[in-house]
Write a structure and sequence with these properties.
alpha/beta; about 40% helix; about 290 residues; about 15% strand; binds 9-methylguanine
């Protein structure tokens, strides 16, 4: 039987990210229209780097090892944003955070220009919901030298939830991610810089999301760290009837379920509550069964 070798750490610019314990990635949206916390970091209609620093520091103090800074809303139905608008939102925040927070700064972008500029300002990771499919993204990401999260999405944010269709969602996500790993390697990005993400909620029905979560260990079997984002997503609304601001308990439960099924990194809004839940899991794992 093949034994999957799991990586124990990842070099993220000048910081080492250890996978000895599950990693929490805190979400920092610089968008005015994000689905759960849009506009929170705005003062007088502009992104406020000091407010971003306060929010990031609070997440780091609560247990986040990565802060994911995004300037494009990818909620279902979101309209595309110009690269310039995305850069204007994200770069001042990356510049303010890098060197000031004790965490890796990840940049959630598909834009090659933003990848390069953010890396030059001190970002330590790239998170691309389009898996480096935009023209020039493979080369830009390669040249940053940073680790990259490749995520699966069916369609685009503006239309992806209208009628997602799969034969077998797990097989198709796996096939797509393998192809993107191969494309990355062909472009000169070594496999040991990559993380994989099934893209919960990105062109998936509730049934698709549940099936992916149930079979997450198959994706973990690829031997690359798995990053999973389920926090406050619409499947929770569909299954509980809860509004986006009432989804903390279910979000924490899903983070725990994902880690139990092989996720190395959980992308969350509610860092402190997630850290407490993961501490309970870690305590349980110290007991011999
Ligand atoms: C930006 N973004 C929103 N949801 C996400 C998810 O589930 N995974 C990743 N990698 N990025 C996400």
């Amino acid at each position: 039987m093949a034994v999957t070798q799991r990586r124990s750490a990842l070099q993220c610019a000048d910081r080492l990210l250890s996978f000895q314990a599950p990693v929490i990635m805190g979400v920092l949206n610089t968008t005015p229209d994000s689905f759960s916390d849009g506009g929170r970091l705005y003062t007088d209609g502009r992104p406020d780097p000091d407010a971003a620093l306060d929010a990031a520091s609070a997440m780091v103090n609560a247990g986040a090892a990565i802060i994911d800074v995004g300037g494009e809303s990818t909620r279902p139905g979101a309209e595309p944003v110009s690269v310039q608008a995305e850069m204007d939102r994200v770069l001042p925040v990356v510049e303010r955070l890098a060197g000031s927070v004790d965490a890796i700064i990840s940049v959630d972008t598909s834009s090659p220009a933003l990848m390069c500029e953010a890396a030059a300002l001190g970002a330590g990771m790239l998170n691309d919901v389009r898996a480096l499919m935009r023209e020039g993204a493979l080369e830009a990401a390669r040249d940053t030298g940073l680790p990259i999260c490749l995520m699966h999405m069916q369609g685009s944010p503006s239309t992806m939830q209208s009628a997602p269709r799969y034969g077998d969602v797990v097989d198709e996500v796996l096939t797509f991610l393998r192809a993107r790993v191969a494309a990355s390697e062909a472009a000169g990005i070594s496999r040991d810089r990559l993380l994989l993400d099934p893209g919960f909620g990105f062109g998936k029905s509730v049934a698709h999301n549940l099936r992916l979560l149930a079979h997450l260990s198959r994706l973990a079997g690829e031997g690359l760290p798995l990053l999973v984002g389920l926090s406050r997503k619409s499947l929770i609304g569909a299954l509980t009837g809860r509004d986006v601001h009432e989804r903390l308990p279910a979000s924490v439960a899903l983070a725990l379920l994902a880690v139990q099924r092989g996720a190395s990194v959980v992308r969350v809004h509610d860092v402190a509550a997630t850290a407490d839940a993961l501490a309970m899991l870690a305590a349980l794992e110290t007991v011999e069964s």
